[in-house]
Design a protein that fits this description.
This protein is an all-alpha fold. The protein contains eight helices and no strands. The chain has helices at 3-32, 39-49, 59-66, 85-96, 105-129, 139-169, 180-191, 200-225. Helix 6 (139-169) packs across helix 8 (200-225). The longest helix is centred in the C-terminal third of the chain and has 31 residues, at 139-169. The relative contact order is 0.16.
């Protein structure tokens, strides 16, 4: 892979993560907790009671931090369980062992392996469909194709994303689930098939702008360096 493509992909991916992180926090809360009445209620409660956290280097740590519901530090109030990404990682390692840091890893792998293919096929297909032969796709085409590629891939990924998030939070509940299949069966039994699409609306709302910006910045960086 040329250095230009690597750097362009890294920068555009970082922009996408920064833009999508608030939506991702809401999505994880809706998937793993039942205290919110909907997207708006979740956003309002997070804004009112909690402080924002920096992006964590690992998906597990990100999910654990996003699920903290303690209000902002106040005199006389108990501190949050995790003080930050490093403290979160150290706490998981101490309380759950080295394997605890890889909780949900198989679900994450199963989620991302097929959806990456869906993601790029959708983007390339839409760009090819709406770009005259021999020309580069326009900015509008890249934005729309990138946005819809993100939506399609996240709709496909949401069922396993729910399972991943639940298994990552399982360490705090002293191992409710015995594995991916047990998590799926238990979730269906208790909440019905609709549980697998919990968070799909916020996923889609996040996916369009995040991936539109990601692909647009990627394409422009390549053209600028080319």
């Amino acid at each position: 892979m040329p250095v230009e493509e690597f750097v362009a992909g890294w920068i555009s991916g970082a922009l996408g993560l920064v833009l999508g992180h608030p939506f991702d926090t809401v999505k994880v809360r809706l998937q793993t907790q039942t205290t919110y009445r909907g997207i708006a209620d979740c956003i309002v409660k997070i804004y009112r009671h909690e402080s924002a956290y920096c992006l964590a280097p690992f998906d597990l740590i990100k999910v654990r931090l996003q699920n903290q519901t303690e209000p902002r530090a106040q005199p006389g109030s108990s501190p949050p369980r995790y003080q930050g990404p490093v403290h979160c990682a150290a706490s998981i390692f101490r309380e759950e062992g080295p394997r605890g840091l890889f909780r949900g890893a198989w679900a994450l792998t199963l989620r991302d392996t097929p959806t990456v293919g869906i993601y790029f096929i959708t983007y390339e297909g839409l760009c090819h469909q709406y770009t005259p032969e021999g020309q580069n796709p326009s900015s509008a085409t890249v934005l729309v194709a990138g946005g819809f590629a993100g939506i399609v891939s996240w709709v496909a990924a949401t069922p396993l994303d729910v399972i991943k998030s639940r298994m990552q939070m399982d360490g705090l509940r002293r191992r409710v689930y015995q594995g991916i299949l047990d998590c799926m069966v238990s979730s269906i039994r208790q909440e019905g098939l609709g549980v697998f699409f919990r968070g799909v609306t916020i996923n889609s709302a996040r996916a369009f702008p995040v991936n539109a910006v990601t692909f647009l910045s990627y394409e422009y960086l390549l053209r600028w360096w080319g």
